[in-house]
Amino acid sequence: MRVRAPATTANLGPGFDCAAVALDLWNEVEVTEGRGEPPDPTHIGIRAFGLVASPEGLAFEWTDRIPRARGLGSSAATIALGLVAAAKWSGQELTIEDLLARGGPLEGHSDNLAACLAGGACLTWAGRIERLADSLPVTPVAVIPRQLVRTAEARDALPQELPYADAVFTVARATLLGAGLARGDATLLEAAFEDRLHEPYRPSPLLHAIRSDLPGGAVGATLSGSGPTVIVWAEEAEACAAELADRFPDETVLTLPVSAEGAH
């Protein structure tokens, strides 16, 4: 049995810990019976599988295409692979919210995992998933630095309090973000892709450089998850990607369309 799970970009600016989009970049696992090495109990995908069914007597071959520790949901994808594989292998008919409930504590936060399981553009809260759209009027173009960022370390940099004006600013943009995702409105999304809740406290010279001089055809830029990857949201993705590759030759630039399909 082969299972696939997509990369994700989360937060989308002000949608901290609740908004995420599935991207067309895939990790895979192949599960076979009765051959190969015993499963590694410390592997996060095996741990996820074990939340639904026993991995004993099975062999797992993992294919990783999503860069690790870059803010593109690599751990969420691996957890989703384990969950979906276990449910299918054991014949259990679990909803995506059932799988989210199992895997959420392992992931630590649910936004990436929700979009990875459901596909498209999603909001998640209190264990629920609302899938807003199969596609968006803008295409994500990822600018991926070489450095790594650990989510736990990035969260340690966030303040416990912030100015009231910044809270009001972010609430307004988050409201616009939800409306823009649901309506597929690039004008609303352009107004929404700014944040004062977490991005200012996660130093990203790359984000600042891109935002201060957006490429042609782009409506905004956001830090992907905890970073360091920056997502540029483009109405003209090909031209935008070419300009970014020229401006940032030391970084990897990938056009990653929204995936309507989640882990399967």
Kindly describe this structure.
The protein is built from nine helices and nine strands. The chain is of the alpha+beta class. It has two domains: about 1-135, Ribosomal Protein S5, domain 2 (2-Layer Sandwich); about 140-255, Alpha-Beta Plaits (2-Layer Sandwich), CATH 3.30.70. The strands form two sheets. Strands 1, 2, 3, 4 and 5 form a five-stranded antiparallel beta sheet that branches. A hairpin with a 6-residue loop joins β7 (about 220-225) and β8. α2 (about 75-90) packs across α3 (about 95-105) and α6 (about 165-185) runs antiparallel to α7 (about 185-190). The radius of gyration is 18 Å and the shape is globular. The termini are close together.
Q: How is the secondary structure organized here?
A:
Layout: E1 2-11, E2 15-33, H1 44-50, E3 58-63, H2 74-90, H3 96-107, H4 111-118, E4 121-125, E5 128-133, E6 139-144, H5 151-156, H6 164-183, H7 186-192, H8 205-212, E7 218-223, E8 230-234, H9 237-247, E9 252-255
Antiparallel strand pairs: 1-2, 2-3, 2-4, 4-5, 6-8, 6-9, 7-8
Helix pairs in contact: 1-2, 2-3, 2-4, 3-4, 6-7
Short description:
By secondary structure, the chain is α+β, with helices and mostly antiparallel strands.
Range of helix content? 25-40%
Q: How many beta strands in the DSSP annotation?
A: 9
Distance between the termini: 11 Å
Strand content: 25-35%
List keywords for this structure.
Alpha-Beta Plaits; alpha+beta; Ribosomal Protein S5, domain 2; 9 helices; 9 strands; 264 residues
